[in-house]
Amino acid sequence: MKISELTQYLEQIAPLAYQESYDNSGLIVGHPEDEIGQALIALDCTEEIVDEAMQKGCDIIIAHHPIVFAGLKKLNGNNYVERVIIKAIRHGIALYAIHTNLDNVLGGVSSKIAEKLGLASHAVLRPKRNLLKKLAVFVPRSHAESVRVALFDAGAGAIGDYDECSYNTAGYGTFRPLDGANPTIGTVNEQERVEETKIEVIYPERLERSILVAMYAAHPYEEVAHDIFPLNNTLQTVGSGAIGNLPHPMSELDFLGYVKEKLNVKVIRHTKLLNKVISRVAVCGGAGAFLLNDAKRSGADIFISADYKYHEFFDAEDDIVIADIGHFESEQFTQELLLEIIQKKFVNFAVLLTEIETNPIKYYV
């Protein structure tokens, strides 16, 4: 299949619009129209990973971390980033990254950790705001249903576990077509009064263009009366981290042992234990110190993440236990997650997990 078939599906799951401003997710090397037959999944894209892809006949590498974060000014092979890019281009291997956009969706990186820990009914720890808008469009009653269906088909009206959500108000509209107009209803230079329905729907801002195109195509009027409102509502399925409950509460020591077993962790750095039962657990794949207050507000007994600095551990303030399990360790199951996502859609497409551990940090135990 073409690269675009795979990437468009991945971006339905984790839209590029949801990546952080500093990130560089998406197709880094390759053309969307290029044909691919086999993919290699890895957490990082290193020279070893490119060599592995060559040996296994893979023509695309899907990595969690982008090989390029900032713009490259030269491609001389003077560092591993440049060498990876050069080697991939030479051997016709596409490089695709799915990073903070996969971090920021329910069912993404942090959800996978929650799943591994068996957390029940987990939710996004810090949902994002300002991603939703509301459209209100005024439609002659005879065309209300067709416009409504067009909006739904374009992605409007989805709220949580519900879709085709709208609010509809009956009323009437007035207008007078002027010289040069070509009205669907009414006569030039005469005021018209039409029974109309006001249709209101909520939609993610990233879908705005396709929704407006659908609205214009379905609406009978030459000039479509509509309003667009930005919303400060949180989008509960998009944001950072995850929070959930253990099916059976544990002591702190028992839970730390449970984490080591379930997450395949060798070492856990943690704050002092508080002699409390662990029942509610907050997690974040990768560097998650910015979510500590969210974990506290959510009533978590422990916050599991990575990349904590010395002074940041003091921020626990005996309110919560912080457990740093390591960056690679917190994200290692992202590879498994991507395999599941791709195989669910493309059952006949060959997808391989890397056999190389790219963790640059080693432990002397």
UniProtKB/TrEMBL annotation:
Keywords for the protein's UniProt record, in alphabetical order: Metal-binding
Gene3D superfamilies (alphabetical): 3.30.70.120, NIF3 (NGG1p interacting factor 3)-like
GO cellular component: cytoplasm
Highest taxon of the lineage: Bacteria
Binding site for a divalent metal cation 2: H64
Coiled coil ranges: none
Any GO molecular function: metal ion binding
InterPro entries membership: DUF34/NIF3, DUF34/NIF3_bac, DUF34/NIF3_sf, N-reg_PII/ATP_PRibTrfase_C
Pfam families with a match to the protein in the record: DUF34_NIF3
Positions that bind a divalent metal cation 1: H65, D103, H327, E331
Subunit details: Homohexamer.
Record family assignment: Belongs to the GTP cyclohydrolase I type 2/NIF3 family.
Descriptive protein name: GTP cyclohydrolase 1 type 2 homolog
Lineage: Bacteria, Pseudomonadati, Bacteroidota, Sphingobacteriia, Sphingobacteriales
